[in-house]
Amino acid sequence: MAGFSDYRDHDGLGLADLVRKGEISQHELLEAAIERAEDVNPAINALSQKLYAFGENMLKDLPANAPFAGVPFLLKDVSAMLSGTLTTHGSKLFADNMAKADTTLVERYKHAGVVIFGKTTSPEMALAASTESTFCGTTRNPWSLDRTAGGSSGGAAAAVAAGIVPIAHASDGGGSIRIPASCCGLFGLKPSRARTPNGPLAGEGWGSLSASHVVTRTVRDSAAMLDATHGPAPGDPYCAPYYGGRFLNEVKTNPGRLRIAFQRAPLSGAAVDPECARAAEDAASLLEQLGHTVIDEQPPGDWEELGHALWVLVASNVSRAVKNRAAELGRDIKPDDIDRATWSAVEFASTLPVEAYPDALARIHMQGRRMADFHRRHDVVMSPTLAQPPAPLGVQHTNNPDQAAYAAALQAFTPFTQLFNLTGQPSMSTPLHWTSDGLPVGVMFSAAFGDEATLLRLAGQLEKAKPWFGKTPGEVS
Questions:
Q1: Which residue numbers are catalytic?
Q2: pLDDT tens digit string along 164-209?
Q3: What Pfam families does the annotation carry (predicted)?
């Protein structure tokens, strides 16, 4: 294998296969990833930490026959604790927050054979749909450097799109896997609630809203990593419905004739850009050509009620996290410790009565039951992933002094994704459309709770019918 061009010609499983065949060494793969990072990171700012020596050390003891043995990998700098390294959560408040042990998910990544050599940028406390904050700076989209890479897993998506790695860890509490996947032309699957573990320090993320997985260039990489990481760990408070097969096998399995509900507008009523509407309409036509039944139908739900419940859960958890950190530092939290968006969450949480949190949980659980009934008639819900193409940088910076403009931009950009965090359903963004000026636009598909298998079958079919692997950004080539 000669040079970087070959490195980028393969997905994660493909690179691991080259290692097994002896066509490339694990050391050479890591060198290629580091070289690419050094070339493009100054332009895109996707890496928050360079752990090159850590990655070199991992090469000494990789598990034999692991699915991703030797594949370079990056962790999102939020929640994923890697022993002996910092986890900053994108905030100066956590700038020296050293992990004493691995989280369960990181342990499973290691068992899958990946070589961790860095961490990726995130907006402070993973709060935003664009990766722009005081501590981490601005992460730029490899497809257009004046546009957002999405958030909160923006660094992960930018790194994969720019060819630093073929697969990177991401998390999703309101769309943070699917949003950057859409912005960066990648495949992004948010698993069902508790499909992947949150332990050992937490039982759930953001009151059950958040799930962790990866962003990838191929469907099979996502499926294979889910095979390597899914399932409960001892002490988990609950788990996703049992799945006894192999997710990787689902990718090549015909999905049959699916009943697909086409959600054209978000529950909030936010306007949908014509490019995003066109992406979904074109996908609907493709689905019908593939033999599926597509019917216009809106999922149930009152967004005023659901949006409030979501913000109660998010703000309460963020407030607890930053206050606990301040207490560790021996003081109270102050406005200048954190960005304005984070402080807004703390202020909002302080106004809530004690009943607000269980009330929010009750409301999202009821919405889950409504959606379960909806899925008696529909196998899958389809919509645009976002209501706009990748947005210009600036307004969604978490320290924007105009917080009203920040909130309005957030609500206009990402009105579709949060529904499936509230219900815990699996949901994926597929890169099926590019605008006339070359910006990626994702189409989102969501299935009944616990049914990642249907999504992966459909994703495999769509990837074969309308391949996207060969599409790479020109801005940082």
A1: 76, 152, 176
A2: 999 999 999 999 999 999 999 999 999 999 999 999 999 999 999 9
A3: Amidase
